[in-house]
């Protein structure tokens, strides 16, 4: 498996007990510059945030769940939990569809909703190599990303390539 660079989009709004957040950071990470178009990224993260917001339980349901938690031994949290588990399921399904979009698939960019003990984030990962089109058949070839080598100041014009 090739090495991948990851970017984490942290939660921005209210989190539930299981760690899922109502929305995640929608600022374009500079690490994705040159790999993904900023409008494609913004469209994808807005779709994820809108899906979570649409399926998020109403304020009354969440307040009821937390307020009656002690009296019901935590059973009152099942009401908002059902809505939030639906939101998580639909967000994961949407992320699977986002991963299949050509703008992300061709660049090797993968989105993932990561949930850990009481917290969550969206992980955007991409390979440490670039993919460039090869020929007219549409195949892709891996090209190592390298910084340009500095030219020495002693190089003469005869050594430099000329454009015709």
UniProtKB/TrEMBL annotation:
The keyword Membrane applies. It is found in: Membrane. Residues 23-118 form the Golgin subfamily A member 7/ERF4 domain. Keywords: Membrane. One of its GO terms (cellular component) is membrane. InterPro entries: Golgin_A_7/ERF4. Residues 147-164 have a biased composition (Low complexity). Residues 144-164 are annotated as: Disordered. It comes from the Eukaryota. It holds the Pfam family Erf4. Coiled coil: none annotated. This is Golgin subfamily A member 7/ERF4 domain-containing protein. It comes from Achlya hypogyna.
């Amino acid at each position: 498996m090739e090495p991948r660079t990851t970017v984490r989009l942290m939660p921005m709004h209210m989190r539930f007990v299981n760690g899922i957040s109502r929305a995640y950071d929608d600022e374009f990470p500079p690490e994705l510059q040159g790999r993904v178009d900023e409008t494609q990224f913004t469209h994808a993260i807005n779709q994820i945030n809108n899906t979570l917001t649409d399926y998020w339980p109403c304020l009354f349901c969440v307040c009821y769940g937390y307020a009656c938690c002690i009296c019901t031994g935590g059973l009152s949290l099942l009401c908002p939990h059902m809505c939030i588990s639906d939101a998580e399921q639909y967000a994961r399904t949407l992320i699977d569809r986002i991963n299949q979009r050509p703008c992300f698939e061709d660049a090797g960019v993968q989105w993932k909703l990561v949930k850990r003990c009481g917290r969550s984030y969206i992980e955007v990962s991409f390979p440490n190599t670039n993919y460039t089109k090869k020929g007219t058949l549409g195949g892709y070839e891996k090209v190592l990303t390298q910084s340009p080598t500095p030219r020495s100041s002693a190089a003469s014009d005869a050594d430099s390539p000329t454009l015709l």
